[in-house]
């Protein structure tokens, strides 16, 4: 049977060559076990997959037999997704519903997602950055900075409950435009109509794609791609003029200055008396705009979308932004059955206000003055002039007020304070927590021009860490710094050092781009498969009834590592192939020390050498 990744690659190339191609017989792809294996490999290491759904089942014990059972149900069209478990996560105002599907259902959802991605990814608009391979928040922000130069007005679009209000009927109609396979469409309908359990009370789903499911992002992108096409047509419609008109004052001043320079070249003896005149002209030229920014004949409209977060940039008059807002609201209501949130949708003047997108503030940059010699630009005139640079560029900024709000839990009375909830944790784990917070903020805001302002955040976290350790050791902050140093360096039992985040907070001009592909899992030669589902039992070497043993964490804070998890922690793995009997023995705590030592050596040879040589081996 042909490998799943090869089939997906064929589908992707077909739809890339013809963005309006019709795809058929997609449901039969779900009969391919290699597609289910690929889906399992994609999601197996995510911590949420060890959270049981409404059926109480996790990915622990997943095997080829489970795949064959799911394929059999799909063949008979008897596969019915379980209702998702609903919980809520807090947001600025109120809370957002989050669905937790069964991990076994996630495997089938991932299969569907891979097929949909192969079909729609080549035709998605380039200004859509949410939940797409090789795209991220940073690619959207980089596009904003480089392509929105000169933007005057920003229209921030807020769609009321976008994920919860997506119309199932319209979504399935959109899918039918490119997919002619009723069984495949019906499977997606079953996922949408699976319903949810809240406090163990069943509720039906009448609209929306449940947040937390694997296929929700791709279905939302398919649905909102219609909005992208509409916005692209609006941009093309209202983008007029090739250049802005030059101001009359600027043209006159440049002509006068040119004549003075030519006269100085003809009569070199008069150059000295022209210097004050040239200096005054250069000052007036610098103060006079070169282009007429109120030129009604020059307009531009641009947009960016990340999931349901949409911003539209307008170069032109404010009434154009109001017109675009009206057209977007009408389109959402008529075509997508979505509502524009009038309270949160706003028009911002970038020259005087900051706009918010993906957690960043951005505004028009103020011009900077720089001295240059005209001869450096190839001019025959040896004249120095002051020019303005960086005018109307986009500046990305850290939202300091929002960061300050998140720091409040590490502060008391305006000063850093200890975190009492961490005093029972090992010191190494406490440092790792604070490092995770500081490193996460810096890695996300590294594109900001004022990223150095995060040094105040580092100060608060560093002294909160010191006070937490002092509280734990019943000591003082000064003694903590004398004992562990300025960077609070702690030596772990395995001999490795860990210290508080001390990297310089520098702006990064270009972030590293992650290149993802369908075949993203490492292959160790001479292995012919990427998955361990086809391996023998790692304990008894039996080839029968192989299951994958999963653990949620290989290193639990404040808990000693015991049993079989000890060996998984030694090689930093969370899954291992075992037979059904050995899997049962693992969960019952029945072990054979000699066999486990052989397990460790076998896994070392296949994956990587254990870096921590201080961990003792089982004898």
Task: Give a description of the structure.
The structure is a single chain. This protein has 619 residues and is of the alpha+beta class. Helix content is 40%, strand content 15%. It contains 19 helices and 22 strands. The longest helix is centred in the middle third of the chain and has 23 residues, at 216-238.
Keywords:
619 residues; alpha+beta; four-stranded antiparallel β-sheet; 15% strand; globular; disordered C terminus
Write the layout of secondary structure elements.
Layout: H1 4-17, E1 23-24, H2 33-43, E2 62-63, H3 64-75, E3 84-90, E4 95-100, H4 103-120, H5 137-147, E5 153-158, H6 162-165, H7 168-176, E6 179-180, H8 182-192, E7 196-198, E8 201-203, H9 216-238, H10 248-266, H11 271-287, E9 300-306, E10 309-315, H12 318-336, E11 346-349, E12 355-357, E13 360-364, E14 368-373, E15 384-389, E16 394-397, H13 400-406, E17 411-412, E18 415-416, H14 427-444, H15 455-473, H16 477-484, E19 490-491, E20 497-498, E21 546-550, H17 564-570, E22 575-579, H18 580-588, H19 593-606
Parallel strand pairs: 1-6, 3-7
Antiparallel strand pairs: 2-21, 3-4, 5-10, 5-11, 7-8, 9-10, 12-13, 13-16, 14-15, 17-18, 19-20, 21-22
Helix pairs in contact: 1-4, 2-4, 7-8, 9-12, 10-11, 14-15, 15-16
């Amino acid at each position: 049977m042909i490998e799943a990744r090869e089939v997906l690659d064929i589908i992707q190339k077909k739809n890339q060559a013809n963005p309006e191609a019709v795809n058929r017989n997609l449901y039969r792809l779900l009969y391919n076990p290699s597609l289910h294996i690929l889906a399992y490999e994609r999601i197996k290491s995510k911590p949420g997959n060890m959270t049981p759904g409404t059926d109480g089942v996790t990915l622990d014990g997943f095997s080829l037999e489970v795949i064959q059972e799911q394929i059999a149900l799909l063949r008979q069209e008897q596969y019915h997704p379980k209702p998702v478990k609903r919980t809520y996560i807090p947001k600025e105002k109120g809370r957002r519903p989050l669905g937790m599907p069964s991990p076994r259902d996630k495997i089938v959802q991932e299969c569907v997602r891979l097929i949909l991605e192969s079909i729609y990814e080549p035709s998605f608009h380039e200004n859509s950055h949410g939940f797409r391979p090789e795209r991220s928040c940073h690619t959207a922000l980089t596009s904003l900075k480089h392509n929105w130069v000169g933007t005057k007005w920003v229209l921030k679009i807020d769609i009321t409950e976008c994920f919860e209000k997506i119309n199932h009927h319209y979504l399935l109609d959109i899918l039918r435009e490119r997919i002619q396979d009723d069984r495949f469409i019906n499977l997606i309908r079953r996922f949408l109509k699976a319903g949810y359990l809240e406090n163990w009370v069943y509720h039906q789903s009448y609209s929306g794609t449940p947040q937390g499911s694997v296929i929700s992002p791709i279905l939302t992108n398919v649905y909102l791609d219609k909005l992208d096409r509409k916005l692209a047509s609006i941009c093309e419609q209202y983008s007029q003029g090739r250049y802005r008109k030059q101001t009359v004052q600027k043209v006159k001043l440049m002509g006068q200055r040119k004549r003075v320079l030519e006269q100085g070249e003809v009569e070199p003896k008069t150059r000295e008396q022209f210097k004050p005149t040239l200096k005054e002209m250069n000052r007036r030229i610098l103060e006079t705009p070169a282009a007429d920014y109120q030129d009604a004949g020059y307009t531009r409209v641009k947009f960016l979308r990340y999931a349901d977060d949409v911003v539209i940039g307008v170069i032109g008059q404010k009434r154009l932004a109001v017109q675009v807002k009206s057209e977007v609201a009408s389109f959402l209501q008529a075509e997508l059955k979505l509502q524009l949130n009038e309270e949160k949708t706003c028009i911002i003047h970038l020259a005087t206000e900051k706009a918010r997108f993906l957690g960043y503030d951005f505004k028009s940059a103020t011009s900077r003055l720089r001295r240059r010699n005209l001869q450096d630009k190839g001019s025959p005139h040896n004249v120095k002039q002051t020019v303005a640079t960086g005018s109307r560029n986009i500046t990305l900024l850290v939202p300091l007020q929002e960061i300050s709000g998140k720091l409040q839990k590490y502060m008391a009375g305006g000063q850093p304070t200890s975190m009492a909830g961490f005093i029972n944790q090992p010191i190494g784990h406490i440092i790792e927590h604070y490092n995770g917070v500081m490193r996460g903020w810096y890695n996300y805001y590294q594109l900001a021009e004022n990223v150095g302002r995060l040094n105040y955040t580092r100060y608060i976290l560093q002294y909160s860490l010191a006070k937490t350790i002092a509280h734990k050791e019943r000591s003082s902050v000064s003694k903590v710094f004398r004992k562990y140093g300025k960077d609070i360096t702690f030596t772990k039992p395995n001999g490795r050092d860990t210290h508080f985040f001390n990297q310089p907070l520098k702006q990064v001009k270009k972030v590293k781009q992650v290149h993802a592909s369908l075949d993203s899992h490492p292959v160790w030669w001479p292995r012919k498969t990427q998955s361990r589902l086809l391996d023998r039992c790692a304990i008894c070497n039996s080839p029968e009834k192989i299951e994958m043993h999963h653990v949620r964490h290989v290193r639990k804070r404040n808990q000693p590592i015991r049993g079989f998890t000890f060996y998984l922690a030694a090689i930093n793995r969370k899954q291992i192939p075992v037979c059904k009997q050995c899997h049962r023995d693992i969960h019952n705590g029945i072990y054979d020390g000699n066999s486990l030592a052989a397990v460790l050596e076998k896994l070392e040879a296949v994956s990587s050498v254990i870096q921590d040589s201080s961990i003792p081996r089982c004898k």
